[in-house]
Amino acid sequence: MRFRHPDGSTVHLAYCTNVHPAETLDGVLAQLRDHCEPVRRRLGRDRLGIGLWLARDAAHALVTDPSALRGLRTELEHRGLEVVTLNGFPYEGFGAEEVKYRVYQPDWADPERLAHTTDLARVLAQLLPDDVTEGSISTLPLAWRTAYDQERAMAAHTALTTLAERLDALHELTGRSLRIGLEPEPGCTVETTRDALAPLTAIGHDRIGICVDTCHLATSFEDPHTALDALAQARVPIVKSQLSAALHAEHPHLPEVRAALAAFDEPRFLHQTRTLTAAGLRGTDDLGEAVAGDALPDASPWRAHFHVPLHAAPAAPLTSTLPVLRAALTRLVGGPHPLTHHLEVETYTWQALPPELRPRARAQLADGIAAELTLARDLLTDLGLKELP
Fold first, then answer.
1. How many CB atoms are closer than 10 A to CB 278?
2. How buried is residue 288: exposed, middle or buried, by Cβ count under 10 Å (0-12/13-18/19+)?
3. pLDDT in tens, 67-116
4. pLDDT for 149-185, tens place per residue?
5. d(C-alpha 321, C-alpha 69), whole Å
6. Of 66, 168, 207, 210, which sits 20 to 30 A from 220 (CA to CA)?
7. Nearest to residue 307, comparing CAs of 183, 203, 161, 135?
8. Are 343 and 379 in contact (CB under 8 A)?
9. Judging by beta carbons within 10 Å of its beta carbon (0-12, 13-18, 19+), is residue 389 exposed, middle or buried?
10. Using an 8 Å Cβ cutoff, are 353 and 312 in contact?
């Protein structure tokens, strides 16, 4: 979906396909048919943006077989879909029964991460629509915090610098300008936007910036205006923003609140949980650790890294951090000029919701994704953006 900002520039809105697990190119093509096109039809649009997730094997197949890449582009056009952004965070296995810490491997100190992201950039340069010259790729925020020493930090810095040089060369070759955004996430080396300032300014290249995920922002209790102002002051480019909402518990000391939170403790994904105390941010790596005992102080609200559907906040006594998303979006695109032109709804946890909230069929999932995009569209038009055909 495309929108005209009052300054005349185009803002792209997509939804991320990591909600539909697929490890192979055939699986990706099936996603387009079974999920993405039905969502587009529900929205009544001739064109729908998708934030494509390509696992290692799918990306490698595309970059080594020009005919396969041409075939994917043809299939996108046939189904009324377009791609200006990729989700390069998960490397593989995102649809596994247990993902947890595996999603952070390989990290930016490992050569496989540079190779994979280079493949993604080469693929995206060929998938961009004819009238679009700028693309974006989100990636993990360097590494999970443990086992990340100075030697690995230097390796990651070198890898990202090499990537920037490769993106420069790709721009010269294709005329397509691609940028990579580190996506701060609780528990990682770069947990907050503030943590991103030092490594990104050290790299100092405008092709390496940040992806602002509003669920992660909220989970870490970052104020959107303060965070985005700091990025602007440091001249860190906001490559893209993922529109998402976290799980919020206002009174975690109450037994009924703990019980409600426990229903969201599931085995597939990591749900880092945080609370803001007078002494600073406190947290656990997963929701189960928090609800099981006294690992976290419970005098203040808790937030958990669980991407809940934008249009459907959890039932009381829980809610979502949609207000944080609204505030961030106002700052991102509500001013005289957009701070980013790429927005991506990313709710990959539909099948990880408590059983009674999960979609039971493809049609229900398509309905839910369409409802999320409708909410995002309404937020954008309320900010003065005009939806384009």
1. 7
2. middle
3. 999 999 999 999 999 999 999 999 999 999 999 999 999 999 999 999 99
4. 999 999 999 999 999 999 999 999 999 999 999 999 9
5. 38
6. 207
7. 183
8. no
9. exposed
10. no
Nearest to 274 by CA among 295, 293, 260: 295
**Cβ atoms 106, 147 nearer than 8 A:** no
* pLDDT tens digits, one per residue of 87-98: 999 999 999 999
Q: Is 210 helix (H, G, I), strand (E, B) or coil?
A: strand
Picking from 235, 234, 176, 188, the residue whose alpha carbon sits closest to that of residue 89 is 188
How many residues appear in the chain? 389
Q: For residue 93, list its beta bridge partners.
A: none
- The pLDDT value given to residue 147: 86
Structure tokens at 55: 């696992």
Task: Report, as an integer, the average pLDDT of 197-201.
Answer: 97
CA distances from 209 to 96, 106, 178, 200, 254 (A): 29, 20, 11, 7, 41
Cα separation, 260 vs 271, in Å, equals 15
Cβ atoms of 305 and 334 within 8 Å: the answer is no
User: How high is the pLDDT of residue 255?
Assistant: 97
The per-residue DSSP string of 240-270 comes to: EEEE-EEEEES-TTSHHHHHHHHTT--SSS-
pTM for this one?
Answer: 0.97
